[in-house]
Amino acid sequence: MIKAQLTLAVVLAVCASSGCSTYQPMDPNADIPIVDTHIHLYDTNRPEGVPWPPPDDAVLYRPILTEDFNAVANQNGITATVIVEASEWLPDNQWVLDLVKDEPERYIGLVGSLEIGSSDFATQLAELSRDPRYVGIRMRERPRGDDFFTPEVWRDLRILADSDQTLDVLMFNFSLTDIDTIAKRIPHLKILINHVAGANIDGAPVDPAWARDLELAAANPNVYCKVSGLFQQSHQSPAPKDTDFYRPVLDALWETFGEERLIYGSNWPVTMRGGTYGEYKSIVVDYFSPKGRGAFEKLMYRNALKFYNLAPLAYSNR
User: Which of 39, 77, 102, 153 pairs with 277 at a CA distance of 20 to 30 A?
Assistant: First the structure.
């Protein structure tokens, strides 16, 4: 105790002599690696263009490449990332893998895009999965509307599970009851709900109907949730930067999924519509860091490695 008091006294004396006004204690979680499981990369200058974002998007319609994210990652202490394919064009799966092939320690995984229910799904998945960085696919489009879940779709979802590949789900065209149905029908398929399970964030208590459906989906142990898209789900530009604005939704996720099945992601560069990457990350850190070091480690990287079947991190940039 005496030694600690003397150390603090020395620090305060140094601060006083150097002009700093207050003593700032170190963040006890500052050495924890961070894996961002949700970024997009694309090149609007390619001759064939890109299917997303649209040309009239003043924020996003420009090349978003590794040098852009590397700068963001270095500024914000991001150790590694999993890319989520934003294009439905089949060749773009390989385009992203080739784009990041020289930086395997930073770009550790790709959630690709394949047409579920197509005659070529199994062949395409097998070919792309030869690359260990190809960790699964994202389900986002819903052709045929209510008739989406055909026998061919169920066949391909089983192939995905049998291949030990994962399923991300973008909620805009799907519901939490859809998640529950898939999880129950294919219990060995690991499912990761994107963007805080599609919650509408307005600072108020969560919608009771959404909360009930969230509990329904989370009752399946093969369902996880990504703490991503907070700015996007606020439906404001710029987005609020006060952690308390997001607290009702984050409380619901924490209470429902717990520390074992929540995974950090940003949705960069879409985050730029709401604010800086640092502002986004600070909200997540501010809310989850007090949950304890073990829980914070799981959120920021351990759960991601487990869910996507990724190897231990090769390095830390901290």
Answer: 102
